[in-house]
Amino acid sequence: MTPDLMQAGAAVRRRHTEAGGSGGREASYGRVLAPGQVDLTHGAILYLDDITVSFDGFRALNQLSLSIGAGELRCIIGPNGAGKTTLMDVITGKTRPDAGQAWFGSTIDLLRLSESRIAQAGIGRKFQKPTVYEQLTVFENLELALKADRRVRASLWFRLGAEQLDRIGEVLALIHLKDQAQRIAGLLSHGQKQWLEIGMLLMQDPQLLLLDEPVAGMTDEETERTAELFLSLQGRHSLVVVEHDMKFIDALTRGSGPAKRVTVLHEGSVLAEGTLAEVQANDKVVEVYLGR
Ligand SMILES: Nc1ncnc2c1ncn2[C@@H]1O[C@H](COP(=O)(O)OP(=O)(O)OP(=O)(O)O)[C@@H](O)[C@H]1O
């Protein structure tokens, strides 16, 4: 972690202690119980510092440090075995690192939380394969995702109100499935199933979305529409997209809004970071990845 961010984080925790909280890691843990409250005072939604993960002595992640800004859309690329999936696993609590720190905002210590707490805190993950409920309609899938949200369950006793119906309508429009709301999900194309699953994640309004190879198996047109969808989400959500498809990365990083950064992983560490053009022009990147 950069010294200024470390100091800033420590100051926030100190202020909390002085205000009567328990302070330190316990304070971070306590904050997770108030969903939706991620401290973005310092601009970063995710901060990983010096993360190492070993499997039988092999370092899948090797002192990896990474910072994602609030509202940012970040692409992560890297050759097979670079550590991309392991990185996602650390962020979501599936894999515990041997060393390092992982913060969600300035105050939520991810290494202290279970996988389900991390999801509740506002980190949603989309795996490569869509896992929608094939027998249910598109609408019912979204409805179920909404009901899986503890906040909604507690307040609505499982009955959808106007606000929730509006939210489902909004997400249906975002994922280009408004006309398909009553269609059985099993009949959707592969790309549409992927969008539906992204929609299901969106129903829970995660602040950080992790997307693992979201366009694998999509047609060119579906890939293009997925890029549009992600670009429309930036700002409201922060997105980390792991992808091999360079055309898709190109579409994402060319889109409107602030310049998008691409991070290149290699052998468990960050090899390069910059705009797509910058990393493509980087000799080390060409050697280990793009030139293969
Ligand atoms: N549970 C595990 N046990 C042993 N080795 C593992 C385990 N998980 C990952 N690895 C190894 O760690 C390295 C990084 O794997 P990881 O799956 O994170 O890479 P990746 O960048 O996602 O690769 P790909 O693009 O092929 O999905 C690989 O060499 C992999 O074989």
From TrEMBL:
GO terms for molecular function: ATP binding; ATP hydrolysis activity. Keywords: ATP-binding, Nucleotide-binding, Transport. Residues 46-292 form the ABC transporter domain. One of its GO terms (cellular component) is plasma membrane. SUPFAM superfamilies: P-loop containing nucleoside triphosphate hydrolases. InterPro entries: ABC_AA/LPS_Transport (IPR051120), ABC_transporter-like_ATP-bd (IPR003439), ABC_transptr_urea_ATP-bd_UrtD (IPR017781), BCA_ABC_TP_C (IPR032823), P-loop_NTPase (IPR027417). Residues 1-26 are annotated as: Disordered. Pfam families: ABC_tran, BCA_ABC_TP_C. NCBIfam families: urea_trans_UrtD. This is Urea ABC transporter ATP-binding protein.
